[in-house]
């Protein structure tokens, strides 16, 4: 493992990651991070790729009804995607 920086836990248990580290890891405000326990003094942080709430990952407004490779999609967006596929068939 490579140490890329040091941060301090504040009184509320929060960690602040310097902008350079967030940029290097491509982490943005609002991203969800998985914390994995490795051993008594080692944890591994990983950007989560799964949806963390019920919102559609495309429109963000409706409740996601299905998940495809970790991406939640509502039925309205599924219908719109299917319609695009049908239009493509008509124009080919």
Describe the structure.
The protein is of the alpha+beta class and 92 residues long. It folds into two domains: 48 residues, Pemi-like Protein 1, Chain: D; 42 residues, no CATH class. Helices cover 26% and strands 21% of the residues. The strands form two sheets. The protein has a two-stranded antiparallel sheet. It has a two-stranded antiparallel ribbon with strand order 3-4. β3 and β4 form a beta hairpin. The longest helix is centred in the C-terminal third of the chain and has 17 residues. The chain is elongated, with a radius of gyration of 19 Å.
Helix and strand arrangement:
Elements (H helix, E strand, L loop, with lengths): L18 H7 L7 E7 L2 E6 L18 E3 L2 E3 L1 H17 L1
Antiparallel strand pairs: 1-2, 3-4
- The sequence of SSEs as H and E is HEEEEH
Please indicate the count of domains: 2
The tally of beta strands, per DSSP, is: 4
- Share of helix, binned: 25-40%
- Regarding CATH, which class of the largest domain? Mainly Beta
Contiguous helical run count: 2
| Biggest beta sheet attributes | 2 strands, antiparallel
The share of residues in extended strands comes to: 15-25%
Overall pLDDT metric: 79
> Taking Cα atoms only, what radius of gyration do you get, to the nearest Å?
19 Å
Overall CATH architecture of the largest domain: Ribbon
Strand order of the largest sheet: 1-2
> CATH topology of the largest domain, which one?
Pemi-like Protein 1, Chain: D
């Amino acid at each position: 493992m490579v140490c890329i920086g040091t941060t301090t836990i504040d009184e509320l248990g929060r960690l602040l990651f310097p902008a350079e580290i967030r940029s290097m890891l491509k982490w943005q405000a609002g991203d969800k991070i998985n914390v994995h326990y490795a051993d008594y003094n080692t944890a591994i942080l990983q950007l989560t790729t799964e949806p963390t709430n019920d919102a559609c990952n495309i429109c963000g407004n409706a409740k996601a009804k299905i998940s495809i490779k970790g991406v939640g999609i509502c039925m309205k967006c599924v219908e719109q995607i299917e319609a695009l596929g049908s239009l493509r068939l008509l124009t080919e």
